[in-house]
Amino acid sequence: MNQPYIESKEFKGKNYTNTPFETADYDNCTFLNCNFSGIHLSNNQFIECHLINCNLSLSKIKNTAFKNVHFENCKLVGLNFSECDPFLLELKFTECQLNLASFYKLKLKNTSFKNCHLNETDFVETDLTNSIFDNCDLKLAVFEKSNLMKVDFTTSRHYSINPENNNVKNAKFSRDGLAGLLEKYQLIIE
């Protein structure tokens, strides 16, 4: 069954917790100040869309496609990206709250996280090759069996990454952040 195709439309100030969200293919659309908190967004397709000042916390995104989607100043707490459609998945995050989100086993090469809070976020077995964490808070974020090759962490903080359990080849870290790579050894660094 074909879904409606919605192109180049702006949705402003919509509260989808009160009114239904139409399942569709959204192409080059902008969502501004919209509330999707806790609703089912499953089986939608977002292509080259921009979401600004939106709340998607605890929304269901099973089989939802995000193809070149930019989230800006959005609240995405507890979002399980590992359930979305991985085909052509491309995301960008600027000034977002991604606490308790999950990117388990996703391929997120060249992804940009800028000024984001990623506390307790799941990056287990995630391929983040060539990604950038620019001024991000990664407190208690979980990196295990992750591909962090060429990832730039130089301006980020509070990460704890075990180099023996992750591919960190050519990843960039600041001198101040080196303690996050040695935490496993319970060293006292002054």
UniProtKB/TrEMBL annotation:
SUPFAM superfamilies: Pentapeptide repeat-like (SSF141571). Pfam families: Pentapeptide_4 (PF13599). It comes from the Bacteria. This is Pentapeptide repeat-containing protein. It comes from Lutibacter maritimus. The lineage of its organism: Bacteria, Pseudomonadati, Bacteroidota, Flavobacteriia, Flavobacteriales.
